[in-house]
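Researcher: Good morning. I'm working through a list of sequences from a screen, and I'd like to move beyond sequence-only analysis. For each chain I'm collecting a predicted structure so we can compare shapes side by side. This is the next one on the list. No need for commentary yet; just the structure.
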Amino acid sequence: MNAEINLALTQIESQYEVRVLYAVESGSRAWGFASVDSDYDVRFIYVHRRDWYLTIFEGRDVIEEMLPLDLDVSGWDLRKALKLLQKSNPPLIEWLGSPILYRESPEFMTKLRKIAGEGYSAKHCAHHYLSMAHSNFRTYLQSDRVRAKKYLYVLRPLMAARWVVEGKGIPPVPFSGLMSSVSEPFVLAAIEELLVQKIAGNELDDLPRNEVLHSFIVSELESLGDLEGVPHRKIATATLDELFRETVLD
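Model: Good morning. Structure tokens for this chain:
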């Protein structure tokens, strides 16, 4: 699939007249709990030629393609990505830490990761993850039977929020890295069993509600409710402008 994905990225570069600076896997494959029928969520950052930016009207800043072989390919223009980075956009920050890499411009990414690390807003990211956990819990985990993957789509943002609130920095992308934030052996055992079922099954499998996980989620949501003391930072616009100019003019 690496060859197919890189071919798709090369075709996108030609079709849209852009240069891909960075491309990774996102979603369940990056998190480490893809099922046998999971698709490929390829995410990338790209830059146009200089003259594309020299206009009074901004062009479309997203490229999205649904391709054969379950390839979901989506990218953000450099300017859009940097604007989102200033807000510590969690999906973008997760891209920067994905363990599955397809393309990388080393010099650009070294600078981008440095800026992201220095300007990371723990409060913004904790709020994002906690809101996601609340929303997914209300939407998907209130019935007697639930899809296996929906537990993980609550547990992962919940554990990421815990990681941030405890001052550990940017959460790891692989789910296995986040599991160190769970201390209760019976909860860990339930999560590990869930992972086995999720990976061996398919995206539509559902299970009886797990009371151990349900109680853990309710307790964590309550304990993480107050984010008052979590620090907030914002990257200086001048720093992002400098990286934007030197990348476009490269």
